[in-house]
Design goal:
Blueprint (H helix, E strand, L loop, with lengths): L7 H13 L17 H19 L5
């Protein structure tokens, strides 16, 4: 996540949008926004988080 051009705040917000459907806007002003090339990093991080949740969190079903 640190290797993206955009700031970490913007990366985390994009991950939350992918994984949770949470739309919370972009990053903070004056900090670098995500660029198109960052989306591969965001998608990979989002997938890693999903896999970790499946592996380590107990379902309440």
């Amino acid at each position: 996540m640190c290797s993206a051009h955009g700031n970490m705040y913007a990366v985390i917000k994009a991950i939350l949008k992918i994984n949770e459907g949470l739309e919370s806007g972009g990053g903070r002003e004056l900090l670098p926004e995500l660029i198109d090339e960052d989306m591969e990093i965001v998608k990979e991080a989002a997938q890693m988080i999903c896999e970790a949740k499946k592996k380590y969190l107990v379902s309440a079903d």
